[in-house]
């Protein structure tokens, strides 16, 4: 049992290294993921920010959590794209002819998504600091924020894996991310939900992004998180578990 575990982790580290080499050889992938969220942040802060009433003097602080979620939703699309290419080119089948743990191929892509999205989040936070973002949060609050963002990344990455393994075209592999990227717009990420029509407000207040945004916002401003953190964790864990099960099933059926 112990040797089997060691075998799996060593194989997974090799697959992670392979995927990360692809990232570092094409750093434009990370910059491309960052461009749209940063552009949105600049647009909303310097163009729309003066007309939006959020009850806070620093709109960057209010906006940043939603921008981070948007960046992650954009970043996971590359997982679907790379998995689709590996499947289409027969690379996954080739790996399966080797004496390696089969699941390590899939996990290599998933962990690469986490690492690359962490880099993107750090870049966006640095830009936000230049724009005036400030936080009174302590180390524990920042660790909690990091944990929630990683859970959110894993949840969306497993959805991306399903798309990449099921798609028939490159466009189909990447298209799934569009609704996820725009989901923050129908939430409290950019404006308070109080200003929305009743139907839109009902949706906005009961979808995953709002509870996650509110939790991160409260943690970064050293405010009580209330029940939002439990709702956010429930959404992240629920989506991650369900999508993981479907992704593994799809992997075994379509690529194994």
UniProtKB/TrEMBL annotation:
GO CC terms in record: ATP-binding cassette (ABC) transporter complex
Keywords: Cell membrane, Membrane, Transmembrane, Transmembrane helix, Transport
Coiled-coil residues: none
Start and end residues of each ABC transmembrane type-2 domain: 28-254
A Pfam entry, by short name: ABC2_membrane
Calcium listed as a keyword: no
Membrane topology: Multi-pass membrane protein
Protein name as it appears in the record: Transport permease protein
Organism of derivation: Paenibacillus contaminans
